[in-house]
Request: fold
Amino acid sequence: MRVKVTSALVGCLLAGSVYAEEPATESPALWGSPTVDHGACCKTLGEVRSNIDRLDREIVHLIAERSHYVHEAARFKANPAQVEAPERAEAVVRKAMATAEQEGLSPKIAEATYRAMIRAFIDYEQDIFSAAAAAGKAPKRK
Reply:
């Protein structure tokens, strides 16, 4: 039985990879016209990826900056239950979705991104609060 399950799992994994492949990065686009930067970008997938990498560095920089404020926010919480702040989290998600729509981004992408980010930051802030409480620097009560 174990061999059958393992064989089936390996088969599924291999089958999934049969359909995944890396496209050429220096070839011209196969269809459509450039739309970014008024058509000035992008002539190759490599150029697209280079710009995505540039933006990713900026995004990570901003997330790191956000983390400093999340760390700071923990000092204002009386107990670990206040870290969740569900009303605030929902307000942040709604605001991100509205901003996304104004900027031409799908609100669904903004919602999924922000929900994942907020969840990660809640976990991060819980860890900060727990470490501070263990060190006697924050209240331990719930």
Remarks:
- Residues 45-74 form the longest helix (30 residues).
